Amino acid sequence: MKTALVNGVEVRAAESAPPEAACPACGDPVELRVIRGIWHYRHRRGAGQGCPLRERPRGLTDRRVQRRLVRDDRYVTMVVDATIAAAEAAQGGDLGAVLSVAFSPVVRLGLQALGLDPDVAIPRFLRRLVDGEHGMKVVITTDVDEVLRLVRQFPGPVFDLRPSTNGRGPELEALEYYVPLLGIHLATLPYVLEVVRGWNGVVYVIGEEEQWEETQRRAQVQAG
Predict the structure, then answer these.
(1) Is the pTM of this model over 0.90?
(2) Are 103 and 33 part of one and the same domain?
(3) How many domains does the chain have?
(4) DSSP calls for the chain
(5) What does the pLDDT read at residue 134?
(6) 217 lies in the same domain as 146
(7) Residue 147 belongs to a domain
(8) Residue 183 lies in a domain
(9) What is the domain range of residue 26?
C-alpha cells in the first residue's frame, strides 16, 4: 500500500517515512518496505488476515482471493462468478468470452466489486491473450445479407456501426459474436482487435469505411 496511518495521520511510503504504521483498512501493523526502488507499506507477517488491501486479487482469474472477498454477498458472488467464467473461457480461446470481457457491463461491475479498475484490468488481460504477430481480415460493408452469409462460413465478431438495424435486429442478435457499437465505451476495442489479429481471425463491420476509421480513432483516444 502507498499510504498508512501513524497516530491516526496518513503518511506516504517513502525512504524518510516511519518504519512501522497501521493499515488504513484493518488497523493491523504494517512495515515499510522497498522493492526495486519503490517504497510501500506491507502487512507484518500474520497480520491483516481478510484485509481487502492484503487480499486484492492479482487479476481476473485469481479465484482464491475473489471467493474470500465476496463470500457474504450472493448477488456480488454471482456477478464475480460470471466475470471469472468469461475470463477463463477467453483464456481458452472463446471469442464470445473475449467480447464479453471487453464490453459487458457485468464484467465491469464484477471487477469494481473486487477493487480492480476495469479500464486497467481489461486491457491488461486482453493483451495477455495475444501471442506474437499474426493477421486479421476486416470486411466492411453495409450489406447485412453478405455479412450473414460470410459469418456462417468464417465466424468472427460483427461490429454494427449503424444507429438502427433497419428491421434486421433479430437476425443479427442471433449471431454469436454480434456487438452494436453505438453508445458503447470503446476503450477496449483496440485490444479486442489485437486478440482477433493474434488469432488470425476475421472482423465484420456493418457500416461505411469512414465510420469504421472514425470509430477506431475514438477508441484509441478513449484507450489513452
Answers:
(1) no
(2) no
(3) 3
(4) --EEEETTEEEE-STTS-SEEE-TTT--EEEEEEETTEEEEEEPTT--TT-TTTS--SSTT-HHHHHHHHTT-HHHHHHHHHHHHHHHHHHTT-HHHHHHHHH-HHHHHHHHHTT--HHHHHHHHHHHT--S----EEEEES-HHHHHHHHHHS---EEE-SS--TT-HHHHHTSTTEEE-TT---TTHHHHHHHHHHTT-EEEEES-HHHHHHHHHHHHHHH-
(5) 63
(6) yes
(7) yes
(8) yes
(9) 3-43
